[in-house]
């Protein structure tokens, strides 16, 4: 193939690299290094309003612990969707 500056694999590798860089930057900007750095010298205050089914104290104190798992799952789904779309488009271009 003449006239193309990059092969299809180079574009795929560049796209994956750009997406990984974006997600890495987002991960470092959204998650604080520790809870103390976010709220220095402030006591933890929980909502003391009674509810019909109160949550255990441990759940209230660790509410944001699974944010990384949710972000990782989202990234995996995006990788699968983008890869599938890329494969479908390549197959259609070869016909």
Task: Tell me what the structure shows.
The protein has 95 residues and is mainly α. Helix content is 63%, strand content 0%. It has 4 helices and no strands. The chain is elongated, with a radius of gyration of 22 Å. The protein starts with 7 loop residues before the first helix and ends with a helix.
- Residue fraction in strands: under 5%
N-C termini distance? 16 Å
Largest sheet descriptor: none
SSE series: HHHH
The SS-based structural class is mainly alpha
Query: What is the number of E strands?
Result: 0
Radius of gyration: 22 Å
Shape: elongated
Overall pLDDT: 76
Number of helices: 4
Descriptors for this entry?
elongated; 95 residues; mainly alpha
Describe the structure concisely.
Helix content is 63%, strand content 0%. The protein has 4 helices and no strands.
Topology:
Blueprint: H1 8-30, H2 35-38, H3 57-61, H4 67-94
């Amino acid at each position: 193939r003449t006239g193309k500056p990059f092969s299809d694999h180079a574009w795929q590798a560049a796209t994956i690299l750009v997406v990984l860089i974006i997600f890495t930057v987002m991960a470092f900007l959204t998650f604080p290094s520790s809870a103390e750095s976010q709220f220095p010298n402030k006591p933890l205050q929980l909502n003391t309003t009674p509810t019909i089914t109160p949550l255990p104290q441990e759940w209230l104190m660790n509410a944001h612990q699974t944010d990384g798992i949710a972000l990782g799952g989202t990234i995996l789904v995006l990788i699968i969707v983008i890869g599938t779309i890329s494969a479908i488009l390549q197959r259609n271009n070869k016909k």
